[in-house]
Predict the 3D structure of the following.
Amino acid sequence: MGESFSELVIKRGEKGEGIAFEFAEIAFRNLPFLEEFHFFDVVDSTNHRAKFARPFSLFFAEEQIKGRGRLERSWMSKRGGLYFSIVLPAYNVSKLTLISALSVAESVKDSRIKWPNDVLLSGKKFCGILGEFFEDKAIVGIGINVENDVSEFDFACNIKSFYTMSRKDVFESVTKNFAKNYVDLLAGRWQEIFERFAEICETKGKKVKVITPHKVIEGIAELSEDGSIVVSGEKIFSGDCIHLR
Ligand code: BTN
């Protein structure tokens, strides 16, 4: 596992004081399936740590020094943001990332989703999701700029610039929505989830340029019910999507 970081593992029902227990209380109350809450003050990446855990655990960090984004990018993870990864039994990772983005978007008024799973306010990104498979597990890593400084990136924003929501308010709402959306997903209510996603997806009907490892495709984006997009007749499951207008 490489470097070691100080970790506090809290099990359901355990009581204690301090920031770790405060966030653990929210997570256990809102996520009925959750068994373990792993808290780090500083860690490399919660997605990385989550790989070695059992399903139904949540990894949470105040700061990440090697936060990872999609497409091998890094994710700036300074204090003041929310950085956590949920470990679940193996399942369709595209659908899990989609319900994660939806859960965040449903928590922050007037936010929109840029396909596949960026969440935006006024056209700027404040949340990214990294869904991964590892052995028999699905891991969804959620990074949310709440009050961390993102002024060095002109494409990014934080929630604090729009609303007076604390990290706890955001975590409360996102975990609550995630639990609801996860139950809907497992119960086969995909159509319903997808319709809610489509309603707030900014990419739908937009002229886009999508960069995949193999090619660059331009055209009007249509959403597919499996979570992919269709651009100029090509079905695309993952890539870098740029809105052109
Ligand atoms: C992206 O938009 O590229 C995805 C960013 C995902 C960031 C989160 S923060 C918590 C988890 N741990 C990581 O290293 N990455 C994800």
